[in-house]
Specification:
This protein is about 45% helix and about 15% strand. With about 290 residues, the protein is of the alpha/beta class.
């Protein structure tokens, strides 16, 4: 195909990106990195980002766990994990002190990727958590206990844990912030992108001050980028100006393949690994691993 045509130029550019990725070997972190994927605005790609970056890292040979604490259970769906009402889930871990190892299931499509699913029972967990002892720290303690159990059994430690949050700041999200050391914020490249972000950052500062001093906003990923519009470029430039050290170079474009994948209970990494969306998430995962 003629490289001077728009399609030919895009194909040549993507080929170069793939070649660069194939030369990268993702190194294991010195200790388990725990990310909370959060944004109080809905529909910005939190779950999509969680499952695809997790799948990309696992496909590179790293041990990854996704913890789904969104009552909708979309991350569990995308990873092909059963999460109907009769399944033991992260709800049982938070409310009934069930060990995390008892609810974790392997992802059928990606080796080294596991998931602690969410069920509809989580919808009532916000109310039930109120009366429990150490209510903000329950997820953190469950993760710490699971890490000790893995070590005792001689299993490899987890390299990454990603916690997929609901789009609100209730006790479930507070548990995620207390359990994590890093926050990954997906930001949609549209007009309302920065609305609510200042409130999210204020809430994170409160968590840092009172509950988890180790928490930091380490990563911001621009999602749903449409290169054909000036608005997307302006939003991307503005976010990069405000957060020069946190924003990843990788951009996730609007993509039909990314949208279709969950309906097949897959990530885009397995649904269409050759797509632009899969390539973008692979680049984002590699960038996170190198930081």
């Amino acid at each position: 195909m003629d490289a001077s045509s728009p399609i030919g130029s895009q194909l040549a550019h993507e080929t170069k990106r793939r070649e660069r990725l194939s030369e990268r070997k993702l190194r294991k972190p010195g200790s388990t990195r725990i990310f909370t994927v959060s944004n109080q605005k809905g529909g910005v790609g939190k779950t999509t980002t969680t499952v695809n970056i997790a799948a990309a890292l696992a496909a590179s040979g790293l041990n990854v766990l996704v913890i789904d604490i969104d009552p909708q259970g979309n991350a569990s769906t995308a990873l092909g994990i059963e999460h109907h009402a009769d399944v033991e889930s992260i709800y049982d871990v938070l409310i009934n002190d069930v060990p995390l190892k008892d609810v974790i299931k392997p992802c059928p499509d990606v080796e080294r990727l596991e998931c602690a699913p969410a069920t509809i029972h989580l919808a009532g967990a916000e109310i039930e958590l109120v009366s429990l002892v150490a209510r903000e720290q329950r997820l953190r303690r469950a993760i710490e206990l699971y890490a000790k159990e893995r070590a005792a059994q001689g299993l490899e430690r987890l390299d990454y844990i990603f916690i997929d949050c609901p789009p609100s700041l209730g006790l479930l999200t507070v548990n995620a912030f207390c359990a994590a050391t890093e926050v990954l914020i997906p930001i949609q490249c549209e007009y309302y992108a920065l609305e609510g972000l200042s409130q999210l950052l204020n809430n994170i500062q409160m968590i840092q001050k009172h509950l988890n001093a180790d928490l930091e906003v380490s990563t911001i990923l621009l999602t749903m980028y449409d290169g054909r519009t000036n608005l997307a470029a302006q939003v991307a430039a503005e976010v990069r100006e405000h957060f020069p050290n946190q924003v990843l170079e990788a951009l996730v474009p609007r993509s039909v393949r990314i949208s279709e994948a969950p309906s097949y209970q897959q990530t885009v990494m397995t649904y269409d690994p050759s797509s632009t969306g899969a390539l973008s998430y692979m680049e984002a995962a590699a960038e996170i691993a190198e930081r």
